[in-house]
Amino acid sequence: MRGSHADTAGYIPLRSPFHENEDADTDYPVSNAPVRPSFESYTSRSSLDPQAQAEPNRKGSQDSDDAHTFLTAQDDSEQEHVTVHSPSISQRPAISGATSRRDIWGFWVYSFASEVYGLVVLGLFGPVLLEAFAREHGVLATDHSIPCPSASSPALADSQAACVVQLAGTFLATASFSLLIASLGVFLQALTVISLAPLADDLRYRKGLLTLFAMTGSLAALAWLAVPIGSPLVLAPVLSVLGSISYSSSGTILNSYLPGLARGLPEVQALRKAAAPALLKQHSSSSHMQKDSTDTNACYQQHVSDKMSYISSKGIAFGSAAGIALMGLSLLPITILKGSTLALRIALASAGAWWLIFSIPALLLIRRQISGQDSPVTHTLLEGWSSLGNMIKERHRLKMTFRFLFAWFILSDSYSTITAVAILFARVELRMPASSIVFIGLLVPVFAIVGVLLTPVIQRYFNYSQLRMLTVLVFLTSLIPLYGCLGFVPASPLGIKSSSEMFVVSSVFGFLYGGFSSYSRVCYGSLIPRGQESRYFSLFAITDKSAAFIGPLLVGLLANATSSIRFAFPFLLFTLLSATPLLLFAVDMRAGTEAAHLYAQQDDLSNRLNMTQR
């Protein structure tokens, strides 16, 4: 949930994505961002004009060759070899890591495959089914000697009895049980992501890990059909946690492809090649020329950011469309079986089948690449924890990256808590029937697609930066819990007290959440060093999951103590408003992008020196 260019002005023709051996001058999307200075205004004529390039200018040729060598060493970290000495540009083959339609469609198709789990299972039916399992093993809150009304009856029926379930010697409200399992799941997700991030950075393992988590998560969802409601209570949390770990880990790995896909687009590579002489002078010339080079780099990085935004927003749109389609199909068993737990288990298994089936073409499209030197897997796994410590120690070199992460920690806690609580709030607090809850589940992704498509239009209209647009979306989202707090006023008819209000609020949240997801991912992707995408996106996911662990846990404890989920609204209002000034005043995207660029250069130089000493 990183502006985007998903409107009709930029497009990728819907041709077969399996045609990967195509010319470089293909119809990739044209950026719709506000007009920025072109590279012609920054670079010399000899770097852009073919006629000028033909003139005998040995010094210009030498600068170009050196610059290309310099950029190849620092930018193409995902290639099989690192070139330190390079022939002339005219003698070099095309960059083997160039992005093809096949690569982009692989990213989109996997989003189409996996996002149904997040929308259908984690966001809709999963919390309700966990609450039903807890109710089946629970007792009345008022009398612990009387069993709860059977959950084998329709799970979303108008059962007014408040129930609790015993867990580790403590009685918990059944709604709190669902939230606590969600917290446990995200805690284990963080541990998994930390351990596997270095493996995902090694392109030899990245696709294999994506395949592993796709298979594990989809099969865990399918297994719900084999777990009837009367099964031991422990089975439901095991399947829930296993599926959520696989979904989160595969999403982190998929995100790590995003910066490379954007940088590998033919037009982006052409701009980088044109900027090479100016970028070289940034490290060897006067302060005036360094300023021009800095502007050149900022222009190039902005173009990369625009392309990441386009690819990311399209992936979110495809994933949301898949979730909408499966939710619509889930209405059939929900209606026929009258919202029983069997209908919910069929819906969860359907999400697993969807994930499994559509992962096959996605994994065929995503190419396996080879990079880096062989290293023992055990060493690489242990490296994840030391790498996390090293990244934290380097926070003074990437100040803006870590400031954004701190804001992201607060924001992801808020948004994760909203999505975790919304369905339970409708189920427990508003007593909404099954059909209404499914309708809520449909509204959110439908309006998320609308948000993904329209927020870039709004951004361009007001000429906002991506960070400023993200800030606006966060502020508007804070109005939702503010409105929910009106429900504490006894005489007030407002404050999300009716089904109609819930429908409107869900639509507004979906619109804002779609834009928030896209902009946050792109903003962060612009602040991470090249060649370390998986590590830093894993830190992004760790921050997300650490926060997602806190929010539902606190709300679950509040609900258990007050017997009302409504107390989540003040908490959400505070967290959203506290993050807004951080985005406005503490994060400088241009400074952060330049710091990440310099970090990658220095890290690459250090690695090459170490290799030379060996």
TrEMBL record:
Assigned GO CC terms: vacuolar membrane
Designated name of the protein: Autophagy-related protein
SUPFAM superfamilies associated with the record: MFS general substrate transporter (SSF103473)
Spans through the membrane: 107-130, 177-197, 209-227, 233-254, 316-336, 342-366, 404-425, 437-458, 470-491, 503-524, 536-559, 565-587
Single GO BP term: autophagy
Family listed: Belongs to the ATG22 family.
Keyword Transport: yes
Gene3D superfamilies attached to this UniProt entry: MFS general substrate transporter like domains (1.20.1250.20)
Compartments reported by the entry: Vacuole membrane
Coarse class of the protein's main subcellular location: membrane
Membrane topology of the entry: Multi-pass membrane protein
UniProt feature coiled coil, ranges: none
Pfam families, per database record: ATG22
